[in-house]
Amino acid sequence: MNRVVRFHQTGGPEVLHLEEAPLPEPGPGEVLIRTRALGLNRAESMFRLGQYGTDPVFPSGIGYEAAGVVEALGDGVRGLSVGEAVSVVPSFTMTDYGVHGEAVLAPAHAVVAHPERLSFEEAASVWMQFITAYGGLVDLAGVRPGDTVLISAASSSVGLAAIQIAHKAGARAIALTRTGAKRQQLLDAGADEVIATAEEDVPARVRELTDGQGARIIFDPVGGTALADLVTAAAHEAHVVLYGVLDRTPTPLNVGEVLFKHLTIRGFELFEITTDDRRRAEAVAFVADGLAKGELTPTIDKTFPLEDIAEAHRYLEAGGQVGKIVVTVPGT
Asked: Which Pfam family is one of this chain's hits (predicted)?
């Protein structure tokens, strides 16, 4: 038998259960992975709560990220071998594949070998965060040397990835965080400057740090009332990339600033990249290159055993982490 994470109704972390299930057999174009580590993201929390773009179908699996070893290959799968260490690129819906469990199926296009120097825990911490940051900063906004990049929710795994990708491109990364409690951790993680949004005047501080020019790229998963300050802090012809909606409060928007600054405000989600074969390949190559050169390194905040999956979700929702939350699977 095989244990998988499932839930039978939307709700808090307590709705998650480890349930026995038969060992699945890979169909055409599928890969069976014996997992060693699972990456946890805000997306799983929202899916469990019924607040995600795709509604769960009960009983529902869950999970976008896993790392482990190939156990079996379905017909037509090429480029992978049994026993190979792999990780999963989120490029499917959780209603089709939920990869949080001991042995899980994933579509072959989503399965990649990870660099040998990475542990399974690190490999489970790579693709969601780095491809999200790559998509917003590189693919959409065209980050370049000398740019100033404002990064909201900077202590999240995606925020930390964005700091590293900004630096890889030769840009300056200004981390935004609600209070000063995580300031030193963000500086240690590579942020060039840190602004505590609940304690400082964000537009004034950005003007000070950019000699009055503003930030050319703003990378924000929050939205809500704080977006107005980010628009004010934007430079002429800036790109404002919104990749989440953590604050569902109606957003005030100064249309005059958008108009006269010639701003581009763009909603973005990871799947724009990962469901397009060409863009996914380019993103994977970019991240793999950065990992191999040591320019990109996943940051793990805390690990939980699989038996404590509900507690891992509670920890995620408390919002105190700096980096990725990883769930380990027996056998590591």
From this structure: ADH_N
